[in-house]
Every structure is written in structure tokens, then in C-alpha cells.
Amino acid sequence: MNRRMAAVNILEDREALAQWVAENRRAGRSVGFVPTMGALHAGHVSLFQTARQECDRVIGSIFVNPTQFGPNEDFQRYPRTLEADRILLEGAGCDALFLPAVDLIYPPGHQTVVRVGAVAEGLCGACRPGHFQGVATVVAILFNRVAPQRAYFGLKDYQQFLVIRQMVRDLGLAVAVVGLPTVREADGLAMSSRNRYLTPADRHQSLALYRAMTAAQAVYADGQRDPTRLEETAREVLTGAGIDRIDYVAVRDRETLAPLTRIETDPVLLLAVHVGVARLIDNRILQSEL
Amino acid sequence: MNRRMAAVNILEDREALAQWVAENRRAGRSVGFVPTMGALHAGHVSLFQTARQECDRVIGSIFVNPTQFGPNEDFQRYPRTLEADRILLEGAGCDALFLPAVDLIYPPGHQTVVRVGAVAEGLCGACRPGHFQGVATVVAILFNRVAPQRAYFGLKDYQQFLVIRQMVRDLGLAVAVVGLPTVREADGLAMSSRNRYLTPADRHQSLALYRAMTAAQAVYADGQRDPTRLEETAREVLTGAGIDRIDYVAVRDRETLAPLTRIETDPVLLLAVHVGVARLIDNRILQSEL
Fold first, then answer.
1. pTM of the predicted model, to two decimals?
2. Interface predicted TM-score of the whole assembly (ipTM), two decimals
3. Residues A178, A204: contact at Cβ < 8 Å?
4. Chain centroid to CA B57: how far?
5. Going from the N-terminus, what domains does chain A have, and what CATH number goes with each?
6. Which of A65, A98, A111, A116 is the best residue to mutate to test the B interface, defined by the most B CB atoms within 10 Å of its own CB?
């Protein structure tokens, strides 16, 4: 194996990024952007690979954004694995990495936030107050500084994807927001940086998320259209596996995340649970026919 | 007089605007933007003329933004004078006018807001809850759609200028925010679309704003550095003229609008009062030496 990989251009200050952006604009090159918090895994790789196919230049960012973590959440211990990330980025064909310090994004006196309404309010928005305001604000800042034509997000964070898509529409940002399918381990667990927190026993227990979604999908395909019954089916699998800290199990409109009394178009099932010290989320669009 | 004036290119839909923006970008032309609510006057003309001098292309917008008016404010009766505005724009060298309907800016389901913190919280922010959130949000939308290199605002709306400048810094928007001096009538009254609301008696009373600022400036130049005393000087002129509905008379830090206990750099004096049915604001940077 002698595959050559170009070194990723690391951009740590505002001017270096602005110059990279301006050069691509002058040259008329399209830019694809993958914002991340690092601790990269195969899910991120799929985002970079798709960006590579669709755009002339690909830039990632690694920024563990403090404002999207609650006071009792895992900001301090969130995994930082920059050297491994860099190797992975080179292999995935990433051209540049924006690696800002916190005070580049939030300089002293920073006081502006972006807040998305209804789609950000339930589910993780209710469990994690301020989370989506932090996400929307940092993504708006990153989009403005990176000025990409396309930006790539994993659908594992389904509500986040909808929140960002809504923000981009509402603020008129000139970027196409692309959501790509969740990448899973062979046994079905969704790839997540937080899977590193799982002990072997946790890892075994976490498989209940995938089984819960599969069970709900099965009864949905059999014709069950009562959202509450579908949620119960999934919840029983979780509790049967000993998962007792469930933030939510919810069948919602797949575009607005509004609660449903009747199902008229295929909805999304969303789960959030705690396993060990990890909070895990997953989701699945339920399909009438597979 | 046979001065020829090019017709202003009226852009009423998103696609027409996007095409105008893309053409200028392709051609490498700089764009200057003057967002307005119409009812244009000599203050607006000065913004367009400066934009004309500094940029390759000049675009204005007229949009009476409902979200920056409170429920008991003058949204419904705000002056709409499109034909006169158009003639004035042609004379001022404006190339294009973005004239969106409300649902182009806020389509059904719109749910995202931009909120600026401390600098937007006192003064007009306290008197007009939600006002600056409405301003910041619509200006962010307009900036994203128009994508100007420079945008021009009158310093008559001094707090608005600081709020927009802060938002642009905090969100990393690639636009230079330019504030231009207040244009005044010969007798000192600041130009404002709302001056149309004034009866002749109101118009006479409104001159007290300018006199109040002049009086405060005089004692400041004489060495007075107690913010409360400076405010009292201005307030006495207002009440002496029979103005009894005073929203605020405030001497503040000219960059942050923070209240001052000691004056170390020349501050700004800001006034907001009601005269007849009009709410009038004005301000002046106090100067140690004139």
C-alpha cells in the first residue's frame, strides 16, 4: 500500500481561514464544509467522502463548542483526539481544517445568539436547555466565516440537522445543508464520539437502541399507526434491556418534529437514553414498505 | 437642468435579487447596501451618496419590518411613499432596490431570531421590548441575501448602529458596517421619517431635543464630568419646553452604551421622547473640545 495523502492545511487563525476562503472564491471553486467536534469516526469519514465527491475543495472544522453543553454535561471530558483526527482527515481527502481557539469564535464581549423556534424546542431541546441555541449560533458563525456552498451533517443527530436546515432557510444563508445517513457498527450501534464512554457492559446494553427501532419498524410495517403504541413498542425493548434512564422515545413528524395524533406520512422515531455515563441518541424514519 | 437618471432596477423576488448579487460577484464588483423602511429623506440620501462613492454598485432595500414594531407602535401607520422614494433613489445614484413582500423575508414557518445582548438591552431596548431582536434578525436576513461588502446606517439611530455592528462582529458576517452622521434640518431637528407625524406645534416643541443636546455639550465643554448632572442639564431643557413624556435621557459609554459612574473618554448623550404621536430619538457624542 503506497497511497499518497496530502497533508491537511491547518488553519488556526481568522486571517488564514479568510485567505483560504478568498482564494477559492477567486478561483471559482466550490467549497464543501464538515463542521465537527473532533473525536472523528466512520460517520464523519462518510461526510468528508461525500463532500470530496461533490465539491472542488473540502474543509472540516474541529471545535468543541462550550455553549452547546449544559453545566452538568460532558464538555470537560469530551474526547479530544487531534492527532488521530488529522490522520483520518488526510485519508478522507480533506483539504483544510479550521481549528479555532474558543476566543476566536467567542471573543471577549461576544453577546449575539441565534435561536430557532419550534423545531428546536422539544426532545433534546427540552432535555438540554440552551443546547440548540449553542448549536445554531456556532454553526451560523462557522458558516459565515467558512462561506461554503455545501455543508454536511450526519442524520444520527436528526433534530440538529432539522434545526440547522431551518436556521439556514430562515436567515437566508447561501449554503446547501446536506444530511447523510447514520453510519453504524456491524451490530447496529450508531457511530458516536460518545461511544468511547461505554464500558463493555454498557456497549452490550446500548444495542437495545437499535433493537427498539427495529421492533417499532416491524409493527409499523405490519400496519400499526398509533404513535403511542409505536413508542410503547420501542420503550419496552429499552426497559427490557435494563435501560431505565430514558429522556424520550418519540414518534414525530419527520419534517417539523411536531407530535402526531394520526400518522399520514412516514414519521421519524427518535430515542434518547442514558447508558452508563453516556447519553446516546438514535433515530429511524419508519417506512411503510422496506 | 437635464440631468439624466438611470431607472432603479426594482427586485421584488428572491431569484431576481440572487441573480443581481451573482452577477456582481462574478464581475468582481463591490456592493454597497442601504437597508431602509422607506419614507426616504435627506438622511437616507447621504447614505446612498456615500455608498455611491465607495462601491461599484449600490442597492437599497425598502421593507417596513413588522417584527421590530411593538403591538402598540406605529407599524400600520408608518409612512409608505414608494413613488417619491423611487425618484429620490434615482437621483441618489442607487442601482437596484430590493422590495420584498413580508412573506419573502418571513415565509410561513419562519422561526429563527438573532438576539444581541448587553448593547441592545437598555435605552430603546428597554422601552421597546423585542425591537432590537426584530432589527438584528431582519438585518441578518437582508445581509445574507444581499451579500454586500459594505452597509450604511445613519447614526441618528445610534443604538441600532451599535447593535448591528455587534451582530456582524459576533456572527462573523463579511460586511463592513458604516455609520454616517445624522442629517439635520436647518434648525437642528434630526431628519426622521417620523417627523411627518409632527403638527406645527409639535414641530416647534421638537426643537428642544437639539437645544437639550447643545446645553449638555456646553456644560461638558466647561468641564462638567458627572453623568447625572449632564443628564439633568439636558432634561431641564426638555421639560422646560413642555416635553413631559421622556423615555430616557442618558449619558453612556459611546462603544458599549454601559452606564458611567466616571467619564474617562467622551461619552454619548442619548435622548428619546414623545412629541404628539411621534416618538423622537436623537444623540450626540459629547466633545471635550469643539
1. 0.96
2. 0.95
3. no
4. 21
5. 9-180 (3.40.50.620), 193-285 (3.30.1300.10)
6. A111
